[in-house]
Amino acid sequence: MEGSSKDPGILPRSLDVIFNSIGQNLTTRILREDSQRNVYVYGGVEVEVKSADEALDVFCAGQKRRRIGQTALNVESSRSHCVFTIRLVRTGYDTKYDEAVQDKESVVISHLCLVDLAGSERTSRSGTQGNRLKEASNINNSLMNLRKCIKALRDIQTYGSKSRGTTTTPVGHTRVVPYRDARLTYLFKNFFEGDGRVAMLVCIQQAPEEYEETMVRV
Fold first, then answer.
1. Are residues 218 and 202 in contact, defined by beta-carbon separation less than 8 angstroms?
2. How many other C-beta atoms can be found within 10 angstroms of the C-beta atom of residue 210?
3. I want to staple 127 with a disulfide (CB 3.0 to 4.6 A). Which of 38, 45, 72, 200 is the partner?
4. Which GO cellular component terms are attached (predicted)?
5. 125-164 as b/e: b if 16+ CB within 10 A
6. So where are the chain's domains?
7. CATH assignment of 30-217?
8. For 62-207, where are the E strands, in sequence order?
């Protein structure tokens, strides 16, 4: 299986093929729902880690594949969203046999998703053209849909809802939370509903000339 350093076996050869193909595949990922209606990235790679250092190594490997480009406002402007999801699986421990309890009912699964959103810049100021302009349009559309989802959820809190994902305004109109209008919001649908919790940090500049950009973000 392992072979030698001079003549690798089938195992290291297979791993090289798999991870090399992963590194070359930058195509758009498909989002799907499992039997519990949890949204996940189809074809995504889940890596088991046993320490904070191992988790950080995985993050850094993914960060190297992130799209970064130069604009008139930023030398290293992020041209893609960065999503780092940690799935924590907890279960009971059998001290007698020194092993984890193999009981599905005792398993508790939690998710922590850290997201660095791509920069939102007005194209008139950033000077983007060609492919950069297309990227900026896609970024702004996904961020705009995030705003729409947050507004719809706020309406649910204000007016109540008839069913999951909808809200009825005082005039009788039903608003649907548009998660599916963008992959960004669809991926995080479960964090906005049920027991999910969301916190947002916004980076702004204090310069007076950035006032309008700041107000757009907040």
1. yes
2. 13
3. 72
4. kinesin complex; microtubule; nucleus
5. ebebeeebeebbebbeebbebbebbeebbebbeeeebeee
6. 30-217
7. 3.40.850.10
8. 68-69, 77-78, 82-90, 93-94, 99-100, 108-116, 166-168, 174-176
What single-letter DSSP state applies at residue 180?
Answer: G
What is the pTM for the complete model shown?
A: 0.63
Rounded CA-CA distance 192/206 in Å is 30
Q: Over the range 60-81, which residues count as b (16 or more CB within 10 Å of their CB) and which as e?
A: eeeeeeeeebebeeeeebbbbb
- What is the per-residue pLDDT across 161-205, written as a single tens digit (0 to 9) for each? 554 555 455 554 456 889 988 888 898 888 888 788 888 888 777
pLDDT digits (tens, 9 = 90+) for 67-115: 655 554 454 556 678 888 899 888 887 777 777 777 777 788 888 999 8
